[in-house]
Amino acid sequence: MNASDQPSMGLCVKLPLPQAELQELIDKAKDWSLMNGACMRSKKNFNRDTLQFAPFILIPSSFPRTEFNRACEIQIILNELMHRVAHDYEFLKETLKETIKVDTFTRKLFDIYETVHSEGFTQKVSLGMLRSDLMLDTSCPKERGCSQNHKPYCCWKQVEINTIASGFGWLGPAATKLHKYILQELDRTNELKNLPDNNALQGLCTGMIDAWNIYNDPKAVILFIIENVTYNICDQRFHEFEIRRLNPSIKVIRRTLSELAVEARLGPKKELIVGEQTVAVVYFRCGYEPSQYPTEKEWDVRLLIERSLTIKSPSIQYHLAGAKKVQQALAKPGVLARFLKDEETVQQIRGIFTGLYALDFDEHGENAIDMGIANPERFVLKPQREGGGNNVYGNNIKTALESMKDQQERSAWILMDRIQPPLQRNYQIRAGSDTDTEMKEVVSELGIFGVLIGDEKNIIINRQVGHMLRTKLASADEGGVASGLGACDSPYLTD
Ligand SMILES: Nc1ncnc2c1ncn2[C@@H]1O[C@H](COP(=O)(O)OP(=O)(O)O)[C@@H](O)[C@H]1O
Ligand SMILES: [Mg+2]
């Protein structure tokens, strides 16, 4: 479907805005972002000492209230589901069996899991900091009986669930604050009630502090594992500042996997020790793609961390539970019942899945390959990767499927129905752009944050803690903000 064929949704402010008012508003909003830390480091003109505002959408995108509330409510079940999946060794092994034969990266993660599973986990408690990503779908049948009054009719479908490095805990709430300011500037204070509260930063940091308390060593630190160069720096430092604010005695340290390969060791009780500091909690903001493990040393240190007493977000089993192959396996008929107790909950979760297809060497796999080749525009083809820029779209799906049809490699990929989100028209504001004042057709992706702490038997904490919205040009396949295609946004709830 072309962007122009898709149904569109209205906004809270009548657009276009008059040019003079628009330019003034954009300038103010840019300065608000700069002065409140809704920022990033530039990839194009990288300078560690300089920030620029993160790209943003000028007017908050509309989102049906019932669907937003449903997404927040369901997060608790998704958290529990992911926790159960992460603790089901047989399920993970069976699900990833074919994938790890051909995908070295997933295999290396799985090898670490096998090792710590067979040795017995030193730390039984995991800290899950999850983000479930979803899009409204205008092509879904009216099965959930919701948002019937909303034009166009749409209900949301899950894009994926992230179990590692779930970002935008800061930029999500920052966009809500920015939009509150913008609506005030536009004399729309009566609309502020439709921008839902967003305490994602506090919620995620409270989760880390809860885990730190469980570890129970007042001198121990929290370790953020980071990339060699962090562009999305505000979205990490604000977590660090928030932890200090919530508990002034907790120190956060930051290291790359390569630095840890030199500095990290295990103490007498298998504590993770970095330099002289014991680590209570590890938060991976990196470690989800092959380039982040340039040598075997980074893999060795990942194993060392998994063997240690530190509480990990994610632990290796949580990391694997977030694989796209696992998402596809969960969508197979009958599978959810293994993890969720009652039929009603199973139906609720089934309702958020869109079609997901394995590409194994069997009848189902052959059918999926044929489907993808015949109608590539109806699907997204995905490998077992995170972080954006890895999926295949449109006609490239046809080419990719034709070339991998007879290769073992195909079982490392999944095919997914392409979600058709409603269009909106809005202004996308980017540093250095000269087209800020032009209205563009855009589509949004909502992320809901969840925090869970528990071990195989017990769930100690299970919370929904906030949200983030990313909006991209309707013509773009992907919408990563750090990758340069998407922009920070916040939902304006409509009835
Ligand atoms: N089924 C889908 N329908 C429409 N767009 C999708 C779909 N799956 C992914 N996308 C787009 O591609 C982006 C990246 O896909 P995702 O599955 O989230 O992978 P990653 O782990 O790289 O973030 C999403 O943010 C979304 O914009
Ligand atoms: Mg994603």
TrEMBL record:
Subunit structure, as described in the record: Homodimer.
Ranges where the Glutathione synthase substrate-binding domain occurs: 220-321
GO cellular component: cytosol
Annotated function: Catalyzes the production of glutathione from gamma-glutamylcysteine and glycine in an ATP-dependent manner. Glutathione (gamma-glutamylcysteinylglycine, GSH) is the most abundant intracellular thiol in living aerobic cells and is required for numerous processes including the protection of cells against oxidative damage, amino acid transport, the detoxification of foreign compounds, the maintenance of protein sulfhydryl groups in a reduced state and acts as a cofactor for a number of enzymes. Participates in ophthalmate biosynthesis in hepatocytes.
UniProt xrefs under SUPFAM superfamilies: Glutathione synthetase ATP-binding domain-like, PreATP-grasp domain
Organism, scientific name: Neodiprion lecontei
Top EC class of this enzyme: ligase
UniProt-recorded name of the protein: Glutathione synthetase
Membership in a protein family: Belongs to the eukaryotic GSH synthase family.
Top-level division of the source organism's lineage: Eukaryota
Reaction catalyzed: gamma-L-glutamyl-L-cysteine + glycine + ATP = glutathione + ADP + phosphate + H(+); gamma-L-glutamyl-(2S)-2-aminobutanoate + glycine + ATP = ophthalmate + ADP + phosphate + H(+)
Keyword Glycoprotein part of the UniProt annotation: no
Listed InterPro entries: Glutathione_synthase, Glutathione_synthase_a-hlx, Glutathione_synthase_C_euk, Glutathione_synthase_N_euk, GSH-S_sub-bd_sf, GSH_synth_subst-bd, PreATP-grasp_dom_sf
Binding positions (substrate): 236, 470
Pathway: Sulfur metabolism; glutathione biosynthesis; glutathione from L-cysteine and L-glutamate: step 2/2
Gene Ontology molecular function terms on file: ATP binding; glutathione binding; glutathione synthase activity; magnesium ion binding
Binding-site residues for ATP, renumbered to this chain: 160, 324, 382-391, 393, 416-419, 445, 472, 478
Chain residues that bind Mg(2+): 198, 386
Cofactor binding, note field: Binds 1 Mg(2+) ion per subunit.
Transmembrane segments: none
Protein EC: 6.3.2.3
